[in-house]
TrEMBL record:
Domain of life: Eukaryota
Cell location: Membrane
TM segment ranges: 147-166, 178-198, 204-222, 234-255, 261-280, 379-397, 409-428, 467-487
Subcellular location, principal: membrane
Every Major facilitator superfamily (MFS) profile domain range: 104-492
Keyword Transcription regulation among UniProt keywords: no
Protein name: Solute carrier family 22 member 12
One GO CC term on file: membrane
Membrane-related topology note: Multi-pass membrane protein
UniProt keyword annotation of Transmembrane helix present: yes
Keywords: Membrane, Transmembrane, Transmembrane helix
InterPro entries per record: MFS_dom, MFS_sugar_transport-like, MFS_trans_sf
GO molecular function: transmembrane transporter activity
Amino acid sequence: MAFAELLEQVGSLGRFQIFQIVSLVIPIMCLTTHNLLENFTAAIPPHRCWVPLLDNASASALVARGLGPDALLRVSIPLDKHQKPESCRRFLHPQWQLLELNESAPNASGAGTEPCLDGWVYDRSDFTSTIVSKWDMVCDWQFLKPMAQSIYMAGIMTGAVICGPVSDRFGRRLVLSWCYLQMAISGTCCAAVPNFSLYCCLRFLSAFAVAGIMMNTGTLLMEWTKTQARARVMTINALGFSFGQALLSGIAYAIRDWCILQLAVSLPFFLFFLSSWWLAESARWLIITGKMDRGLHELKKVARMNGKKDIRDTLTIEVRSGAGPMSWTSFPVRAAAWGRAGVGNLLSDIFLVQVLFGAIDMPNKMGAFFAMNRLGRRLTQAGSLILAGLCILANTMVPQELQTLRTTLAVLGIGFVGSAFTCLVVYCSELFPTVLRMTAVGGGQTTARLGSILGPLVRLLGQFNPLLPLIIYGAVPVVSGLAALLLPETLNLPLPDTIQDIPNLSTKSPLLSSPLSLPPQPRAFSMHRILWIWSERT
């Protein structure tokens, strides 16, 4: 395609592209910390009811009589089925008979209990403070945590719906800069909120910005990279998410207070906002939307940065009008499972779990890069999703006692989802034309986030049947993987710029070959076609 040839002339993988990759992927690493932040800021610490004998200063007289904290806890809090203190109930009155050592001593089976009317006491050995301990989101109020997660996902979905068309209208860089600023302000304010409702509102705004950053970052990288290097560049972008997981684990290990942790991952976005004004707008988008002068300016800047001084500083642009049938290909529902059902409970050390998932994510994404270039986008996307779903479904048949095997399957499932994500960001951008790329990517993000919104709520079904969440989380990627086989192959094809370019795609892949016949549409779509003539100095 003409623009691809022009990109080769100004430098398709030079100093400019390296600078751009570094400038865009570093914020992606920090962005990942926000996506996974509530693994730590909303961690549920061990807790029990507040009881006067233990938590009131006047109880010191009893302690002086030789009764230690363990004894006072025994007479104040009933035991659960695992013989551990209840988290949500306390005795109406101290059960002193439980301190008798002989076997004939009466038990507390008939003793009256009540909810934690005076609040809770939290174990602060792992986290000094979380939003759970701040707003008592336990027992009858435990639904607030998945509600907060669903509100965050709703923010990403809303951001995808709005940021896509806005980016196609006003440009990629402008929306990206705005989202950096919005993330910085909302994330920073989130650390100082006085109540849960305001916290959810600010998290919604942060999630809105997350969608804009993810979509515009990927699109800018794709539209400034030559065809042969797109998979490589987008794999680097996807690896930014993997490094971000490990980065979050290290930061959270050092900072155990949720407010300070929230600030630590939000303040850098002020720097990203300032640095974003040095980024180049997509010349492909500028030219296609008729902003010729700005497009030429960006191309000249890239040529200078890549050392192409022997290229003339003039471009001759011939604009022709053409008409062709408008076609639309729907992207299937993206797998929203991400193996999240009970993953955090597979190992007791949440910091180790986060590092483990980040470590397994990296080789899987590298494997996806080689598979995309060898097997094609379509088979890589379908295979990754199906394998991810099968790993999660296999966990339904593994007994709880085999924790090592369960952890292995869960980690493999997460790894294959990472492979699917790597392929998805490349595939989705290659399927849609420049004039509608961000709108289409936003539509795909919206569909995916519908599942993400339901994800935390589906986990609550485990209260009725522990296997039910895993079955749902595993079935969705399998169905999505099968649906992906219906998509056209885009391996080694140039990015489509106009809707007329879409019929050039086919369902051919290196292993399977079948033409894609697009149904005729009732209306036509007129679009400027750009012919570039770039000549060297004579």
